[in-house]
Design a protein that fits this description.
Layout (H helix, E strand, L loop, with lengths): L1 H19 L24 H7 L4 H21 L6 E18 L7 E18 L3 H5 L1 H66 L5 H36 L8
Organism: Bacteroides faecis
InterPro entries: TolC-like
Protein name: Outer membrane protein
């Protein structure tokens, strides 16, 4: 029960710290011109891996490991629970009332006050046998919890690296495809411009002009689709790795 309380308290601290962290910013790719995509350079993978450690997923796993380490330190001091110290201190005015009489003296009362203080100190030992024999086992169990938290953090990081590699490879491929589609669109625009002039001069008919327009539209559609897929991959990559890519142009 005590371990659960500590874990719950640690998670509350974690969520409070996450709430205070500024939201991760993602670059605005909608403002890019077609020529801007050709100048985008992806950062090295090692840098992306390192920056990804600042992501909430990795930080959460790290905090859980830290909580388990704190609990392990507590279990190693659990034997101190067998001992107790107690003490008290008192200070005040104490009064004393008395009656005095004699054969020749009528009875009369006397009252006296005096400041006094006092204190007590003690110690106690209470050793439950089940707690005593379970001390070593509790420490071992908590060490296993620490190791479990370590492995969970490593597994999370491996999953993040796999996602980064996939996004990186996809973005690299889409950059090349986008460049090819940009060249094809440029050529289609030139061809359609020539076709318009030829149509105005009567060198070609409307059917030929329509075919060139269709080629231009197909090239434009392919380029826009490639731009969309590339922008999506780059934005997700920025979000996962906390690395602004546009600034690395």
């Amino acid at each position: 029960m005590k371990q659960k309380k500590c874990l719950f308290g640690g998670l509350l601290c974690l969520f409070a710290s996450i709430g205070s962290v500024a939201a991760q910013e993602v670059s605005d790719y909608s403002k890019l011109q077609p020529s801007d995509y050709s100048s985008i350079t992806l950062p090295p993978l090692d840098l992306l891996f390192e920056n990804a450690k600042s992501a909430p997923t990795y930080e959460l796993a790290t905090v859980k490991e830290q909580i388990e380490r704190k609990l392990l330190a507590k279990e190693k001091r659990a034997f101190l629970g067998f001992f107790s110290l107690r003490g008290s201190y008192q200070y005040g005015m104490f009064g004393n009332e008395s009656t005095y009489t004699d054969v020749a003296i009528a009875p009369y009362l006397t009252y006296a006050t005096q400041a006094q203080n006092g204190y007590t100190v003690g110690a106690g030992v209470n050793i439950p046998l089940d707690g005593l024999f379970d001390l070593t086992a509790r420490v071992k169990r908590q060490k296993l919890n620490v190791r479990t938290a370590q492995l969970e953090r490593e597994v999370k990081f491996e999953e993040m690296k796999k996602e980064i590699i996939l996004l990186y490879a996809t973005a690299t491929s889409q950059l090349n495809i986008l460049k090819l589609n940009a060249e094809a669109l440029m050529l289609a625009n030139v061809q359609y411009s020539i076709a318009e002039k030829d149509f105005s001069n009567g060198a070609i008919d409307s059917g030929t002009l329509s075919s060139e327009k269709s080629r231009q539209s197909d090239a434009q559609e392919k380029f826009e689709n490639s731009k969309f897929e590339l922008s999506k991959s780059l934005m997700i990559l920025e979000l996962v790795t906390h690395t602004p890519i546009l600034r690395n142009k």
